[in-house]
């Protein structure tokens, strides 16, 4: 009868107990440790639990291959063939390494960690999913991840032996100094290696002779055997020779140690650069590199002519090392993270002091940091290393880069390319998906001297990436390959995270469209592939000017989307695809109108290409377009001075030459937002950068509070009656209360509403504590119309910021004004030095409709629900007085908002 049994992955002594050793959940070689690289792996052999290797530096693969005999199968936890790999491994007795471990775990992996075995007279089987597979007792399971142990639940860690194989600073520094002397003192290191080989040979000879002596003594049983005496004499000579070799080795070792000590500053500096690189890699997984990669970067940059090698060279060597790290590491980062790398490298604030540095001190140094301006995309591609593929890390907004590659390929074409046309020698480009790359006819691509672009490589698992890397090496080493050939791997890291094994052996280039300055953006628009290539087809200067303004409008819209609620109330996805659509609409509809005004362009182009369902955002967009195309008032229009070319009658070529002379402007000005908003958002970005640096330096664990699934909208199962049957604010709150009770959510909100109902009539309310504030506003309107015995169409509800409370009004608390301020006495809307300010005394009042004073403008009041934190809902318009038109304030992002914990939201946006 079959029996069930538990199985331990590794055999272990019954008396051995790891519990006390693993209380801290890691074995970490820190700066004070003197252990060797292999020390953590001792635990791997001793533990009876499933080992989880935390390897943020990618070093474990090299050592595991050396420590574990037999076949090692490496797979990814997210691989579609994981269950098949498990079945194959346990049946053949191999070692299975599962990479990128994260929760939740798939069922097949959980079954392997806590296996159930069925044993009969013939074989032992293991259950994987719903099937039984043959089990070989020599099989092993090793889990591996780049994440810290704090990323996993305590329940899971109880079943794992966590082994951290990260190396400390002193080991990195020793590795760097060994590389330094290997490169710059090669004769000495070569001599040391030669002496070690000779000593090894001498020891082997001695061992052989000792064995022969023992054998002769056993046979002859004579201690004075002549042959034994001769061999003893020979052994004595070998010992003397070995002593001489030892003395010579000591001399060379002392020279090497002296050389290391003399140039130790280079090792310390290199360690600082590696630490900065490793810390920046904590910002995003697609920045991960192995320690070997950084050591190779260091090795490329420390060579100096031996005749000039003295301490005066240290400064020059450090410059070379920094230059190489910038080339290999910094250019692989997006712009915002490149600044973090440069800041950590600068050392203006030591790493150990950064966690305790105040935000103001950090901001002082970070804002004054000068970062390296990278060379343009074309030069990076043309001058990239020929023996390595190029990985392009693209943001979701950078879809134009693929088209740019076609242009670069054409204008750097081969004169022998069979793809040439009558228009000149042009190279074509082949596109292939990452899934089809392994089966592609790459030899035909090489023969035709084409470029090969592999798309969406972020979707590949670890197993496929290894195959892709092997094929890339084969292609680049082919004899058919010409020097002009380029192989590209395109990765969109904001969609998925690719393994860093793809990047270690590649030239990585990042393209982040969100950081494209205005002048670079306009030059792209008027490039051969840009959307404004229709410039020359337009018949009049006026049309060409309007086309240029359309490009400026797109840039203004894109800039404004970066400011969250200050720019648009709800998320607005704007990319170059919108501009492409707008230009096509402009080309198709505007030429029939010699002098199209903004209204015509709005109806036929902008309102279609940049459509949004939010009416308040649509009004803001229309105001922004009016400002760019026609102007709002002289106060705002001055911000656009200097961006308009003087002459639109020139040909496209001459016009593009004029664009190169355009002066740089502050890109944020084109968003239309007020200076106070821009300054505040820059402070927020600095604060977020400071917090992210502090968090990855301190490795702090962020506790997350798990909540149940919230309903997506307010629904109740039965009608609530307040007794009199009349519509009232109290009845609205009774509905809110029943909704909370039926779903068992938001206890603090429930208590608040209960207190309001106890103290009715309700004269004051925090609007964000109710889910349907629109019902309260409509109830005010309905009650007022009923009291006057008039129709609803004659009554309106508006917000007011001054005046005595009436019976037909309700006061709101925790309301904030964005982008402007109110004068305390007159309550007139004015520019402010603060991006937001708290407003006291705002009321929603019901009244008869009447004509408004010319000095009164309407500003929207927006509300955010706790059930839908992605959407701002328009509740009511608030009347305020202003000496400037409404369009000016809409352009500056002025609005009233209310939401739970408003200040925290605004300062963390």
TrEMBL record:
How is this protein annotated for GO cellular component? dynein complex
**Domain Dynein heavy chain ATP-binding dynein motor region: from-to ranges:** 42-238
What GO terms describe the biological role, i.e. biological process, of this protein? microtubule-based movement
Q: InterPro entries under this entry?
A: AAA_9, AAA_lid_11_sf, DHC, P-loop_NTPase
Which molecular function GO terms apply here? dynein intermediate chain binding; dynein light intermediate chain binding
- Give the protein name, as stated in the record: AAA_9 domain-containing protein
């Amino acid at each position: 009868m079959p029996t069930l049994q538990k199985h331990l992955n590794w055999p272990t002594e019954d008396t051995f107990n790891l519990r006390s050793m693993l209380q801290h959940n890691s074995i970490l070689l820190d700066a004070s440790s003197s252990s060797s690289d292999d020390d953590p792996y001792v635990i791997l052999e001793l533990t009876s639990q499933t080992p989880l290797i935390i390897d943020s530096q990618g070093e474990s693969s090299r050592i595991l291959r050396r420590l574990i005999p037999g076949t090692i199968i490496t797979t990814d936890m997210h691989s579609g063939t994981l269950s098949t790999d498990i079945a194959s491994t346990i049946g053949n007795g191999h070692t299975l390494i599962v990479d990128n471990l994260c929760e939740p775990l798939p069922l097949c992996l959980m079954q392997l960690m806590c296996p159930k075995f069925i044993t009969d007279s013939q074989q032992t089987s293991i259950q994987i999913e719903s099937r039984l597979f043959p089990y070989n007792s020599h099989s092993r399971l090793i889990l591996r991840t780049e994440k810290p142990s704090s990323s996993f639940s305590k329940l899971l860690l109880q079943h794992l032996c966590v082994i951290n194989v990260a190396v400390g600073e002193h080991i990195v520094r020793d590795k760097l100094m060994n590389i330094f002397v290997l490169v710059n003192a090669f004769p000495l290191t070569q001599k040391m290696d030669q002496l070690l080989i000779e000593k090894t040979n001498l020891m082997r000879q001695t061992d052989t002779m000792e064995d022969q002596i023992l054998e002769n003594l056993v046979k002859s049983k004579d201690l004075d055997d002549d042959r034994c005496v001769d061999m003893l004499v020979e052994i004595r000579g070998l010992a003397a020779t070995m002593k001489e070799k030892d003395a010579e080795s000591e001399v060379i070792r002392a020279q090497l140690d002296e050389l290391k000590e003399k140039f130790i500053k280079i090792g310390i500096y290199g360690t600082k650069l590696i630490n900065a690189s490793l810390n920046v890699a904590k910002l995003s997984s697609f920045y991960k590199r192995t320690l070997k990669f950084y050591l190779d970067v260091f090795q490329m940059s420390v060579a100096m002519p031996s005749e000039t090698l003295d301490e005066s060279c240290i400064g020059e060597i450090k410059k070379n090392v920094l230059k190489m790290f910038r080339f290999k590491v910094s250019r692989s980062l997006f712009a915002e993270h490149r600044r973090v790398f440069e800041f950590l490298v600068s050392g203006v604030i030591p790493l150990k002091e950064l966690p305790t540095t105040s935000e103001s001190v950090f901001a002082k140094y970070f804002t004054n940091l000068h970062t390296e301006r990278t060379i343009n995309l074309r030069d990076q591609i043309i001058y990239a290393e020929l023996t390595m593929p190029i990985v392009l890390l693209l943001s979701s907004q950078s879809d134009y880069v693929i088209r740019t590659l076609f242009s670069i390929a054409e204008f750097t074409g081969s004169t022998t390319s069979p793809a040439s046309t009558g228009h000149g020698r042009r190279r074509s480009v082949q596109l292939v998906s990452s899934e089809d790359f392994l089966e592609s006819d790459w030899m035909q691509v090489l023969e035709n001297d084409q470029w090969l672009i592999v798309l969406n490589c972020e979707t590949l698992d670890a197993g496929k990436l290894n195959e892709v890397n092997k094929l890339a090496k084969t292609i680049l080493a082919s004899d058919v390959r010409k020097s002009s050939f380029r192989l590209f791997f395109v990765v969109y890291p904001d969609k998925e995270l690719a393994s860093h094994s793809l990047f270690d052996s590649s030239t990585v280039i990042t393209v982040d469209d969100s950081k494209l300055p205005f002048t670079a953006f306009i030059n792209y628009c008027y490039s051969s592939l840009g959307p404004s290539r229709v410039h020359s087809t337009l018949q009049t200067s006026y049309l060409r000017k309007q086309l240029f303004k359309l490009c400026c409008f797109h840039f203004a819209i894109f800039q404004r989307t970066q400011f969250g609620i200050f720019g648009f109330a709800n998320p607005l996805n704007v990319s170059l695809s919108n501009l492409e659509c707008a230009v096509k609409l402009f080309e198709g509809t505007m030429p029939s109108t010699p002098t199209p005004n903004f209204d015509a362009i709005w109806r036929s182009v902008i309102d279609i290409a940049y459509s949004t369902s939010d009416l308040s955002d649509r009004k803001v967009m229309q105001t922004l377009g009016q400002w760019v195309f026609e102007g709002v008032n002289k106060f705002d229009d001055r911000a656009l001075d200097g961006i308009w070319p003087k002459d639109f009658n020139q040909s496209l070529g001459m016009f593009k030459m004029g664009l190169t002379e355009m002066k740089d402007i502050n890109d944020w000005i084109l968003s239309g937002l007020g200076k106070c908003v821009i300054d505040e958002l820059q402070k927020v970005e600095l604060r977020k950068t400071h917090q992210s640096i502090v968090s990855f330096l301190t490795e702090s664990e962020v506790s997350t509070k798990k909540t149940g699934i919230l309903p997506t909208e307010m629904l109740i199962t039965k009608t609530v009656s307040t007794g009199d049957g009349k519509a009232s604010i109290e009845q609205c709150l009774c509905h809110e209360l029943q909704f909370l009770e039926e779903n068992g959510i938001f206890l603090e909100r429930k208590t608040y509403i209960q207190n309001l109902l106890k103290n009715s009539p309700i004269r004051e309310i925090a609007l964000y504590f109710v889910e349907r504030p629109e019902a309260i506003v409509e109830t005010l309107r309905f009650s007022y119309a009923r009291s006057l015995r008039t129709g609803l169409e004659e009554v309106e509800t508006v917000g007011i910021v001054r005046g005595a409370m009436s019976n037909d009004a309700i006061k709101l608390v925790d309301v904030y004004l964005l982008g402007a301020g109110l004068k305390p006495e007159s309550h007139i809307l004015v520019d402010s030095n603060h991006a937001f300010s708290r407003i006291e005394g705002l009321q929603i009042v019901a009244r008869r409709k009447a004509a408004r004073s010319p000095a009164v403008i309407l500003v929207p009041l927006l509300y955010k629900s706790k059930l839908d934190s992605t959407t701002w809902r328009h509740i009511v318009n608030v009347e305020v007085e202003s000496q400037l038109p409404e369009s000016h304030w809409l352009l500056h992002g002025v609005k009233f908002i209310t939401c739970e914990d408003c200040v925290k939201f605004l300062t963390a946006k």
